[in-house]
Specification:
- The chain has strands at about 5-15, 15-30, 35, 40-45, 50, 90-95, 95-100, 105-115, 120, 120-125, 135, 140-145, 150-155, 165-175, 175-190, 190-195, 210-215, 215-220, 230, 250, 255-265, 275-280.
- It has a 4-stranded antiparallel beta sheet with strand order 6-8-13-11, with no helix packed on it.
- It is mainly beta.
- Residues about 1-45 and about 50-55 have low confidence and may be disordered.
- It is elongated.
């Protein structure tokens, strides 16, 4: 068997480093050629087909592993993935404060907003003085997931009490969840009686019985086009002159009294008389 071997050595210098390139042509029989040039190797058969691809050859003749170009795109096992937040809800209360007087009704709005939570929510009011009441409508609201529901809070302020500055707090509870919101309720020690327009000499719209506490200011406001003048006995002072529309007459209770004569002097007791008492 004849064999012809050709070897060429070419020296290349770059930054002081010798690069070698070999070209080997070997004829085995008469039809095989082997070429190894700058680490490229090919075995070409007589039909021109590549029998050994240099791109898959390692330096020692073994197979060369193919790098995984998509390694960074492999899905995480989930250990580092952020956990979804647990279902919850928030509560808000408006307005932030109300200023009123004795014997009035005040309204607040509670807004419940779901953050994935659904179900009934119980509401409890606290911070009000004894005898004051707060009612909810609806009393037990139900939240749908990612929805909002509003609740009306009605606060009834009784008359025979002293003024008070309260922080009304509403606590919402559902399962293991609990959130609170609060607003101010400022109540002056004042009770207002209003003579409505059109009353004239008829019914003045006064309550039949009225109890207030010492320190309370009783105000009679005339909204009628007809003039009115209030009659009182001690400890209140009789009004000296009739009051026109938009005017008012105020007296502050300085002592206790089981009965205080109270009626419209201009039109007589009929339709305007009040059984007024003053408590300590």
């Amino acid at each position: 068997m004849a064999r012809r071997i050709t070897r060429s050595i070419r020296g290349l210098f770059a930054a002081g480093t010798l690069a070698l390139a070999f070209s080997i042509a070997a004829c085995v029989g008469s039809d095989a050629t082997l070429v190894d040039k700058e680490h490229d190797a090919s075995v070409v058969g007589a039909d021109g087909a590549i029998a050994h691809d240099p791109d898959t050859a390692s330096g020692d003749g073994g197979s060369k592993p193919t790098p995984n170009a998509d390694a960074d795109s492999i899905p995480d096992s989930g250990e580092d993935a952020e956990a979804a937040p647990a279902p919850d809800f928030t509560i808000a209360m408006n307005p932030p404060s109300i200023t009123t007087t004795l014997g009035t009704v005040s309204h607040y709005t509670i807004t419940l907003t779901s953050a994935g939570f659904s179900g009934p929510v119980s509401l409890v009011a606290s911070g009000l003085p004894t005898g004051w009441t707060a009612t909810f409508t609806p009393d037990i609201p139900t939240l749908d997931a990612n929805k909002t529901v509003t609740v009306d809070v009605k606060v009834d302020v009784p008359i025979p009490v002293s003024g008070f500055n309260a922080t009304l707090q509403v606590t919402a509870k559902a399962a293991s969840l609990e959130h609170s919101a609060s607003s101010l309720l400022n109540v002056a020690s004042k009770y207002v009686l209003t003579i409505a327009n059109g009353a004239g000499g008829g019914n003045h719209g006064f309550p039949t019985n009225l109890r207030i506490k010492v320190g309370t200011t009783l105000v009679v406001r005339n909204e009628d086009t007809t003039a009115h003048q209030m009659h009182y006995s001690a400890p209140f002072a009789h009004q000296s002159a009739p009051m026109g529309q938009g005017e008012e007459y105020a007296q502050t209770a300085t002592a206790t009294a089981t009965s205080v004569e109270t009626y419209c002097h201009s039109h007589g007791p009929a339709g305007s008389s009040i059984n007024l008492a003053i408590d300590p």
